[in-house]
Specification:
Keywords: 3Fe-4S, 4Fe-4S, Iron, Iron-sulfur, Metal-binding, Oxidoreductase, Signal. This protein is an alpha/beta fold. The protein contains 11 helices and 7 strands. The protein has 2 domains: 212 residues, 3-Layer(aba) Sandwich (Rossmann fold); 70 residues, Cytochrome-c3 Hydrogenase, Chain A, domain 2. The protein has a 5-stranded parallel sheet with strand order 2-1-3-6-7, with helices on both faces.
Length: 349
């Protein structure tokens, strides 16, 4: 029985995870740091309500060679049962590869020839209950799709088409990041698994097919340095704790929650630790955000306006801060204290 003939709830789900796109395996490595939940919690059944999960990822697998590839071949034949296809890395245009191929996974059992990634996508994506693009390369093309690249790389939606729907009726679910923020991916995967178990509604996605609760706000809206921007107080170098817009930070216009979530166990996150946001979760990355370290377009105007408004607000807040840092004088009306209480040690007024 093929996977696309089945419907939730599922008791068991396979995760077929390929990083054979144009990739550095950085997203796989990143996910090993997840804790909300951890990959181990999902695989060991520690999360209530999830189906039993079988992971097939070459970096984390014990099997190698034909033993590892067996699950992928079974899925392509419709023999594996329900599975989620996780794709890591950008998708090359094999029409530009000449007589060879850009990237492949495993060999054809009959011919012995390598099987291109695009062939696997053609075979697996329509049968998958859900398809998840992990990292910006898989979501939107990323680094390998920069202007001038010879591979014609693209994101998974670019390859499959905007009208693609999985066997579960879902479009591609994009979880961008270079690499992906580990808990963002595991939280998304957990939602999809709960949906596969019949315990969650359809995952909400924005226009770029990102989970709305993770990418609905900008870096700036969650940044520890945002108040400095409001007060027109900008860093002049990377040693400053102040707003970094004028030294190249794109945070005000980039959809990402890393400043709120941190990187590992709530710690880190680019601007939180002195790095600038370079827009790595965005479909336009990297071309639209280069050259890095330069002041973003429009920052001069916005920073100039804040330079007038901000110091005035900062001055008023300084006055209020000074007042609020003094205890009230507990007295009746008038200048003199009339409570009648005399402290034992009257060291201050």
């Amino acid at each position: 029985m093929s996977n696309d003939a089945q419907a939730p709830p599922f008791d068991e789900v396979h995760i077929l995870w390929t990083s054979e796109g144009m990739s550095c395996d950085g997203d796989t490595v990143s996910v090993t740091a997840a804790s909300l939940p951890s990959l181990e919690d999902v695989l060991l059944g520690a999360i209530p309500g999830l189906p039993k999960v079988h992971l097939h990822n070459k970096v984390l697998a014990y099997e190698t060679g034909d033993a590892f590839m067996a699950a992928f071949h079974r899925a392509a034949r419709g023999e594996l049962g329900p599975f989620i296809l996780v794709v890591e890395g950008s998708i090359p245009n094999e029409r530009l590869s000449g007589e060879g191929y850009w990237t492949s996974m495993g060999n054809d059992p009959e011919t012995g020839e390598p099987i291109p990634l695009t062939t696997w996508l053609d075979r697996l994506a329509p049968r998958a209950w859900a398809v998840v693009a992990i990292g910006t390369c898989a979501a939107y093309g990323g680094i390998h799709a920069m202007a001038g690249n010879p591979t014609g790389c693209m994101g998974l939606v670019d390859y499959l088409g905007t009208g693609f729907r999985s066997a579960g009726g879902l479009p591609v679910v994009n979880v961008p990041g270079c690499p992906v923020q580990p808990d963002n991916f595991m939280e998304t995967l957990t939602w999809v698994l709960h949906q596969a178990a019949g315990l969650a509604p359809v995952i909400p996605l924005d226009e770029q097919l990102r989970p709305t609760w993770l990418f609905g706000k900008t870096v700036h809206e969650g940044c520890d340095r945002a108040a400095y921007y409001e007060q027109g107080d900008f860093a002049k170098d990377y040693n400053s704790p102040k707003c970094q817009v004028k030294v190249g930070c794109w945070g005000p216009v980039v959809n990402c929650n890393v400043t709120k979530r941190g990187w590992m166990d709530g710690v880190g996150g680019c601007p939180n630790v002195g790095g600038i946001c370079i827009g790595c979760t965005m479909p336009g990355f990297p071309d639209k955000f280069m050259p890095f370290m330069d002041e973003p377009p429009g920052a001069t105007l916005s920073a100039g306006l804040m330079g007038v408004y901000g110091p005035f607000i900062r001055a008023l807040r300084t006055i209020t801060n000074h007042s609020a840092n003094r205890e009230p004088r507990w007295r009746h009306k008038g200048d003199a204290l009339t409570t009648g209480y005399e402290p034992r040690w009257n060291g201050r007024d």
